[in-house]
Amino acid sequence: MSHDRPTLADVAAAAGVSVSTASLAFSGAGPIAATTRERVMHAAEDLGYSGPNPLGRQLRSGRSGIVGVIVGDALRRSFRDPVSVQMLDGLVRTVGPLGLGVLLIPGSSTPEEGAVDPLVETAAMDVAAIIWGGTVEDPNLAALRRRGIPTVVVEGQAVEGVAAIGIDDRNGIAELGRHLRALGHERIATVTLPFNRAGRSGLADAARMAQLEWEITRRRLAGLHDAGIVPVATWEAPASLVEHGTDAGRALLTGPDRPTAVLAQSDLLASGVVLAARELGLRVPEDVSVAGFDGLDLPWLAPDVLTSVSQQLADKGAAVGHAIEALIDGRMPDPVTLPVALRLGTTTGPAPQH
Predict the structure, then answer these.
(1) CATH superfamily of 66-167+313-338
(2) Greatest pairwise CA separation for the chain in angstroms
């Protein structure tokens, strides 16, 4: 042979079969006798042939075998968030057996209006998934639709022709809010997820509320309204991280007119509020109740166990994976809304009497 790497033609010649028969032996498609397949595999082993060139196979099939997963934040922050990690694990476990790989793409590498990561515009992918935060005007979604790439939006707005996976978080927050009201709390503050790609840290006044874009944040604020709660203060966090919850807690719990309860839109933010309360010498829940959302196991927060709304993160990731499978098969899956459940912990109690 004049070349270093053996080819499928070399294997076919060594096995005494046609190239098309050797190809069938490797693909597992079409009728081929077991003895013939075995002869081809023995020839491949003798020649050190590992299989068809994957790039060539992609070009012939018209598929890349890649799912583009656009996370709603910088990757370094997403991997610090157990919510993202557990959901991605459920997704990968579902699409892996389908022979699909995952390409992670940051969704907010730049806050500039209309900006998208170059990979969204250029990377080879068969299907894309946008993980939380998506809006109808999301530039990532617009770019994917221009490219004709089937897309799944997770916890975003309903868009015609786009698969949707969500959770019943609005009702979950409403139930949590009613729990706090039943405990006698009237001065309830909230710590939110980002309002948009250009997330900021601070109190949200009426002007800032008018700039709210991300659907996940909007739904969870609406859940408070459903429970009859008008927050005494709304603090916007730039990401779902403990340190941002701590910043919020320090600001909200300092002063004589502090709230008696703080409801955060994620467990990491809520845990940061608990840490801030401890730092300020406040007892949880005797002086202030704190509640979150996600139902995470946070043993490092002991002895406190967060009151929270739990969601099934791995199941959500699997649901995204099943939607991806349907899109690859040319089917539009039905929208999925997964249930949530109130989980009572040790961080909520009766409102203090002053």
Answers:
(1) Response regulator (3.40.50.2300)
(2) 91
